[in-house]
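Holo prediction. Input below; ligand is guanosine-5'-diphosphate.
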Amino acid sequence: TDLAHIRNFSIVAHIDHGKSTLADRLIQETGTVQDRDMKEQLLDSMDIERERGITIKANTVRIDYTADNGEKYVLNLIDTPGHVDFAYEVSRSMRAVEGSLLVVDSTQGVEAQTLANVYQAIDADHEIVPVLNKIDLPASDCDRVAEQIEDVIGIDATDAIQVSAKTGQGIHETLEAIVQKLPAPQGNLDAPLKAMLVDSWYDAYLGVIVLVRIMDGTLKKGMRVKFMSNGTLHHVDRVGVFRPAMQMVDSLGPGEIGFLTASIKQVRDTRVGDTITNDRNGTDKALPGFKPAQPVVFCGLFPVDSAEFEDLRDAIEKLALNDASFSYEMETSAALGFGFRCGFLGLLHLEVIRDRIEREYDIELITTAPSVIYHVFMKDGEMIELHNPADMPDLSKVDHLEEPRIKATILVPDEYLGDVLKLCQDRRGIQMDLTYAGQRAMVVYDLPLNEVVFDFYDRLKSVTKGYASFDYQMTGYREDALVKMSILVNDEPVDALSTMVHRDRAEMRGRAMCEKLKDLIPRHMFKIPIQAAIGGKVIARETLSALRKDVTAKCYGGDATRKRKLLDKQKAGKKKMRQFGKVDIPQEAFISALKMD
Ligand code: GDP
Ligand code: MG
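Structure of the complex:
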């Protein structure tokens, strides 16, 4: 296809504003999929997405469209992930297209993810077409939302298209706007191949499938290509496009979006943002901005049953094959035995992987406290990246610590603003901006990532009854007075419960943790002291009193079934516990103890 008849775009939206529904409508309206094959949420229901769960990064579909001017166009839609954990992937897929549809639910208005995603689109120099969705609903208020788009985002919304992705109203206008308003891609057919690796995933039949955007040159079946980040060479055995099912083609030219397969075994070998060129006489200028995915949140994963360690290793290795952004290394804990220290892009990513190990591989896990990467500056000038509080070096050798910070953007209805400010303040936040748009406030905070990774989002949802939206970006490292707090149960340090805390909050945090643990750890036949300590100094203490000799004594007399039930219940509880010295600590203690209310 000649460049003038190609349009490449993505759809940016806050979750639930109708991105998938709109994509389905565009596909349906253009007859890309026969009506009888049309399923709800076509893009979402593709097998690859189901298989990949929430880690799905981008789905693509190529649509043929004959415009009102009689010309035939090829429209390539790249569907980007909506979650903050995958900001880098979003930024890469944005670079693969020239324009965006900005979908805003006209009954709701602009939300935090709308902003985060549209800023990515603006960064990528996109032409942006605002689309006001859900106009079929009585609560729809297009004027107000258009005004809000202008006020908050600063783009012209006078020509915003009014759409109901549900009824199909405005879909034709949307297709025309894509053709008329979005720029055609540019590229040089005669130059060496230069393609961006937009995404990749594993397919059981075809091996790794690599989604590419061709910038210059031609990608052909049968050629040898080089991945520039690591210099690896691959023989291209298939080239194709998604409609949305795979369709093989002989070649892809400048401006086109499609896929290749090349007998690549591991997704790990394909890096999002990488440049693909010819094996010989290729380009020597890689596309700018490539960086390998960097895990930011770390935690330990240990099997509840230590006999399942090898199964866990197997599960983790399999999952890692298909997820280049997930890292792991073996870890031994005095308390938990053998396990793995794993790195994730964010908390959602952590939860997805943990759930998959538990569900798909049927291994019960103990997850230790999530931690960010601290920079520990030693007195001798060395800098150590600390991924695990348990590895904190001897304080006498440490000069100072730095922690990662984020810029958080929160949109919230006025009435909850006070609670949100308090929450951010409690988490050591520094207010950077506060503006109003309609009845809502937009607050921008500089926060330590550590204070956010744990339960910040849950707390935010609960204090705002779900009305706040939230998004963040990493900004860099800053020094602060951070210390390692250890927890001792029955005088034994439980390394898996160690956390890094701010010195000023250590005592409060320590007290809260000891109280929580007192509730979470079942009583034993003996008294159990629970202590929080910094260095050798105990800063908080609780005592779990001893159990009366016979647990069944409270069943008064001879009700045998009740007695058995109680014993069974104890046994079931046991399964999920681990022994620390002489004390059984239940699995949920490792996470719950850290939640701050
Ligand atoms: P996404 O999270 O942005 O992909 O949003 P979805 O496309 O999954 O839509 C979220 C919800 O809004 C679904 O229940 C859709 O059926 C509904 N929805 C999407 N577009 C419209 C619309 O134009 N009108 C109405 N009434 N509902 C819509
Ligand atoms: Mg969706």
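The CA atoms of residues 39 and 45 lie 8 Å apart. That is the main takeaway for now.
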